């Protein structure tokens, strides 16, 4: 899995890492039992503070996507792959309907963000 961050984004860096891990699991790029890079390795490769990566890993643990094991690092859980498939299906419908309504990406993004904050 290739990790990327957008330093210019309004989204916090740790949240970008969390979202990428969820998407990778949903797309089958992360399978149960796969190990994520150590926090230090990932921080070094992305030029981030190690605490930023640790915060992302802790959130992924709290959400059940990974287990943090002393000596083994972050390991993808068995339930990780199944979590987003219904969401991705609903998202495909949402995108199709938005295109039919000629909504811009920016407008759709605002609508989704507002819906998620309710």
Structure annotation, total helices: 5
What proportion strand?
Answer: 5-15%
CATH topology of the largest domain: Arc Repressor Mutant, subunit A
List the secondary-structure elements in sequence, H or E: HHHEEHH
Q: How many domain modules?
A: 2
CATH homologous superfamily assignment of the largest domain? Winged helix-like DNA-binding domain superfamily/Winged helix DNA-binding domain
What is the CA–CA distance across the termini?
32 Å
The shape, in one word, is globular
- Architecture of the largest domain, CATH level 2? Orthogonal Bundle
Low-pLDDT parts are none
Overall mean pLDDT stands at 90
CATH classification class of the largest domain: Mainly Alpha
Helix amount? 40-55%
GO molecular function, one term: DNA binding
Pfam families: GntR
Domain HTH gntR-type: 11-79
Protein name: GntR family transcriptional regulator
What does the model show?
- By secondary structure, the chain is mostly helical.
- It folds into 2 domains: 13-76, Winged helix-like DNA-binding domain superfamily/Winged helix DNA-binding domain (Arc Repressor Mutant, subunit A, Orthogonal Bundle); 85-117.
- 54% of the residues lie in helices and 7% in strands.
- A two-stranded antiparallel sheet has the order 1-2.
- A hairpin with a 3-residue loop joins β1 and β2 (73-76).
- α1 (13-26) crosses α3 and α2 packs across α3.
- The chain is globular.
- The model has no long low-confidence stretch (mean pLDDT 90).
